[in-house]
């Protein structure tokens, strides 16, 4: 267990990094700033984030995201379900395309390359890789690099290019803050997260509170919104957690793998952005929201980006929730099909 001064120093540096970028009006400033500051600190001294920090941040993030699902918004997202399903399947299928590039660049076997390339969550893909007897360490590193690339590129680009809050059918009015109601929701959300965690679901600390807030918001019984400072604090916790992974040993011990992860993530991001643009045009839906919804980043990070930029949060979250479910259902069978067909 690290000395108490290590997590305190890490938290202070992460908050300072987030605050500096916030002053510069960088999109998703608190998370990106915290991540970069923590990563920089990790190259010179040990860093540590308390085990409870990220789950606590995800609880309030889940409540904040779920609170955007008013009745009409939930109806609009449900009506877009065919597009959500199509986007999820297409995003997963791109794993076959990018896997060949990743395998060639990283020098891994084809099966490991497949789990490295599919845009699923880090935890989900590591679990599926373990079941398929692929290299879990390689998959974890590659998936982490992909999330880092997306977090560092998508928020600034969409923040500068996309209009904010322009998609009324996917926007709900902000609820007032009532602290007793907020604390009650947080406690109930935690209780819901525990069984989800035992079931092995990825991101249970976000999904439990988010599901509760969606139910309350859609039925008109949401007792409180989530204050902006709490969302900012959640960003810092998530950014610092990502930053601790970017240690010197992590990046330099597997230099070839890190380069392969960055390049394949860039190719995957461009490919999915173009596909999202085409789907948005065909379905008459907001292009920025679909680009973010199909972005190959983690669900918490991309949903938080949508909230920070006011880019149809429920729609973006719907895409990533759908992809998470589809990853659990389809990636294993797709892997077996690819092996039998000689594609992997």
TrEMBL record:
InterPro entries in UniProt: AbrB_dup, AbrB_fam
Keywords: Membrane, Transmembrane, Transmembrane helix
Segments crossing the lipid bilayer: 52-74, 81-99, 111-129, 136-157, 177-196, 257-280
Keyword Transmembrane helix belongs to the record: yes
Family annotation (Pfam families): AbrB
Protein known as: AbrB family transcriptional regulator
Organism: Paracraurococcus lichenis
């Amino acid at each position: 267990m690290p000395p108490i001064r290590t997590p305190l120093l890490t938290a202070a540096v992460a908050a300072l990094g987030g605050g500096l970028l916030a002053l510069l009006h960088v999109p998703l400033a608190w998370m990106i700033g915290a991540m970069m500051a923590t990563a920089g600190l990790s190259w010179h001294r040990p860093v540590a984030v308390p085990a409870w920090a990220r789950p606590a941040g995800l609880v309030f993030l889940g409540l904040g995201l779920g609170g955007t699902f008013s009745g009409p918004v939930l109806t609009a997202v449900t009506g877009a379900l065919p597009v959500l399903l199509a986007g999820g399947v297409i995003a997963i299928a791109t794993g076959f395309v990018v896997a060949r590039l990743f395998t060639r660049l990283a020098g891994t076997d084809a099966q490991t390359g497949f789990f490295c390339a599919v845009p699923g969550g880090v935890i989900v893909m590591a679990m599926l890789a373990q079941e398929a007897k692929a290299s879990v360490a390689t998959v974890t590193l590659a998936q982490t690099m992909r999330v880092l690339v997306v977090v560092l590129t998508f928020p600034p680009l969409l923040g500068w290019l996309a209009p904010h809050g322009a998609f009324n059918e996917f926007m709900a009015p902000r609820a007032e803050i009532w602290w007793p109601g907020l604390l009650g929701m947080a406690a109930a959300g935690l209780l819901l997260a525990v069984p989800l965690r035992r079931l092995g679901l990825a991101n249970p600390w976000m999904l439990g509170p988010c599901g509760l807030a969606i139910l309350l918001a859609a039925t008109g019984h949401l007792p409180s919104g989530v204050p902006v400072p709490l969302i900012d604090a959640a960003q810092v916790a998530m950014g610092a957690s990502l930053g601790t992974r970017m240690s010197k040993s992590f990046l330099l011990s597997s230099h070839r793998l890190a380069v392969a992860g960055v390049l394949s993530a860039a190719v995957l991001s461009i490919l999915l952005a173009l596909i999202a643009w085409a789907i948005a045009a065909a379905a008459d839906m907001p292009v920025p929201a679909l680009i973010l919804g199909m972005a190959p980043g983690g669900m918490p990070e991309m949903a938080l980006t949508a909230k920070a930029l006011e880019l149809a949060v429920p729609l973006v979250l719907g895409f990533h929730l759908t992809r998470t479910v589809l990853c659990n259902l389809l990636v294993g069978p797709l892997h077996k099909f690819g092996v039998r067909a000689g594609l992997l």
